[in-house]
């Protein structure tokens, strides 16, 4: 069985972690499979990242594999891991994580690489890398502060503590909390809602949000204006308005 599966839901693709026996621990092979999977879903309207393991999303890096590595092998794996996480962050379409059970270390960084995180009541998230003498290396030190701010990110990263689902929702570590066992269905439903909208508008709005995170308000408003202009003169805008007037679903060009 492949470590990563691809499932098709029409306009939505699902990338499913499938290293079940190892609790989806991030190995070199799984990371390489993620790069190939993201390359295959570029043309979809939205993507879901899920887990085939019934009780866990991803427990983080495969430390048993790393324990056998030479320094050179460790650095070679680092390049593969950076490509894997970068391929998720760099996807040109919205990405929704479906989380249940433990999502720790690199597992939580996979979720943080997504635009939205749907988690069920069994979820436990955290970045415990400092407990084993390393630092988050899949984007955690950058993505988490952008999601929840410096103070909370520092608290979680420097203590390495695990955060259960209810607290994670309250702190903004996840976006939607759903009943146990429903995270995948809820994530696919959310991705389907996104996919039903104008792909031009979704892409430009998403780009404006991301680019505006690290600039001042004036620069951010200029970014928004550019996104608005790029959208308002598109065929999608024309079709959207026409469909609204004619009281029908739009057929996005």
UniProtKB/TrEMBL annotation:
Q: Which UniProt keywords apply?
A: Lipid metabolism, Lyase
The family line of this record is: Belongs to the enoyl-CoA hydratase/isomerase family.
Name the UniProt record assigns to this protein: Enoyl-CoA hydratase/isomerase family protein
This chain's source organism reads Paractinoplanes globisporus
């Amino acid at each position: 069985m492949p470590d990563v599966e691809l499932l098709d839901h029409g306009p939505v693709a699902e990338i499913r972690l499938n290293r079940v026996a190892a609790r989806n621990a991030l190995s070199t092979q799984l990371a390489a499979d993620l790069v190939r999977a993201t390359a295959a879903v570029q043309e979809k309207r939205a993507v879901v990242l899920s887990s085939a393991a019934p009780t866990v999303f991803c427990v983080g890096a495969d430390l048993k594999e790393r324990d056998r590595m030479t320094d050179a092998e460790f650095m070679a794996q680092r390049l593969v891991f950076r490509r894997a996480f970068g391929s998720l962050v760099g996807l040109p379409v919205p990405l929704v994580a479906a989380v249940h059970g433990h999502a720790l270390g690199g597992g939580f960084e996979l979720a943080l690489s997504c635009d939205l995180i749907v988690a069920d009541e069994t979820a436990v998230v955290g970045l415990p890398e400092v407990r084993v003498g390393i630092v988050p290396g899949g984007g955690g030190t950058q993505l988490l502060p952008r999601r929840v701010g410096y103070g909370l990110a520092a608290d979680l990263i420097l203590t390495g503590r695990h955060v259960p689902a209810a607290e994670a929702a309250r702190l903004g570590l996840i976006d939607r909390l759903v009943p146990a066992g429903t995270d995948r269905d809820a994530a696919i439903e959310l991705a389907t809602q996104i996919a039903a909208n104008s792909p031009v508008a979704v892409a430009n709005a998403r780009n404006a949000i991301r680019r505006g995170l690290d600039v001042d308000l004036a620069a951010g408003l200029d970014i928004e204006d550019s996104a608005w202009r790029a959208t308002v003169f598109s065929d999608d805008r024309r079709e959207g308005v026409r469909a609204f007037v004619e009281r029908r679903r739009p057929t996005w060009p």
